From TrEMBL:
EC number: 4.2.1.17
GO molecular function: enoyl-CoA hydratase activity
Function: Could possibly oxidize fatty acids using specific components.
Species assigned in the record: Gordonia pseudamarae
Reaction(s) catalysed (UniProt annotation): a (3S)-3-hydroxyacyl-CoA = a (2E)-enoyl-CoA + H2O; a 4-saturated-(3S)-3-hydroxyacyl-CoA = a (3E)-enoyl-CoA + H2O
Top enzyme class: lyase
PROSITE patterns noted in UniProt: ENOYL_COA_HYDRATASE (PS00166)
Protein name: Enoyl-CoA hydratase
Alphabetical list of NCBIfam families matching this protein: PRK07854.1
Family: Belongs to the enoyl-CoA hydratase/isomerase family.
Keyword Lyase listed: yes
Record's keyword terms, sorted: Fatty acid metabolism, Lipid metabolism, Lyase
Length: 242
């Protein structure tokens, strides 16, 4: 489900589940974590994260055990690992990055999106919630107003609008991301590692216990169960706030 390749000092890690639109399950999270560890241990100076097929990732695989808090914990641990590796990570995003797929792209240091790509976090439509790191990171990348649109309004963001806001660093395909990564891999590694630590420090502020509890309450709520039932019945969910 995960494919890694190397060209000189650049390692490309690809989500390789195109038949499922690269929807994330527990095995993929584990494979990604292992692939990032191997890339760093192998001396990579830059890493490109991409998705094979027409979309980067459609998000969590809702047909699997993704509603368990254990899956959420694994996803959060993976995002922290991607963010904390000491080399620059570039996300090459094509087609769409939804929910957990967008969270992976946000954990990267730089994002290269193909023209027309759409990103979104539709958690409020599913009766679940994203973690506080994701919210903080989104505010940093797109601004508080646009973050509210994406989170509270479940709006999508285009690659082009993202470029205006600073979410998208460049418009281009996987080859463009790999070429940029090759340039970056020739820069001073210690300088880049220092920059990453400073740039990422704010989003890692420890959330208050009551805010953690509020997020977890969503994942165990009746509303979440209603959303699952509605999805199975192909109808619109009716939420009651419990």
């Amino acid at each position: 489900m995960i494919r890694s390749s190397r060209t000189d000092a650049v390692v490309t890690i690809e989500l390789n589940r195109a038949d499922k639109r690269n929807a994330l399950n527990a095995d993929m999270l584990s494979g990604l974590s292992e692939a990032f560890g191997e890339a760093v241990d192998g001396g990579a100076r830059a890493i490109v994260l991409a998705g094979r097929g027409p979309v980067f990732s459609a998000g969590a695989d809702l047909s699997g055990p993704v509603y368990d808090l254990g899956f959420l914990d694994s996803l959060m641990a993976l995002m922290e690992k991607i963010e904390s590796v000491p080399v620059p990570v570039l996300a090459a995003v094509n087609g769409a990055a939804i929910g957990a797929g967008l969270q992976l792209a946000m954990a990267a240091d730089l994002r290269v999106l193909t023209s027309g790509t759409q990103v979104a976090i539709p958690a409020a439509k599913l009766g679940v919630a994203v973690d506080e790191w994701t919210i903080r990171r989104l505010v940093t990348l797109v601004g508080a107003g646009q973050a509210r649109n994406i989170l509270l309004g479940c709006e999508t963001l285009s690659a082009e609008r993202g470029l205006e806001l600073g979410f998208t660093n460049r418009i281009g395909d996987l080859a463009a991301a790999q070429a940029w990564a090759a340039e970056i891999s020739e820069l001073a590694p210690l300088t880049l590692a220092h920059y990453k630590l400073v740039l990422n420090a704010e989003a890692r502020e420890e959330p208050a216990p009551e805010r953690i509890a509020a997020m977890q309450r969503c994942w165990t709520s009746e509303d979440m169960k209603e959303a699952r039932a509605a999805r199975a019945a192909k109808r619109k969910p009716v939420f009651h706030g419990r």
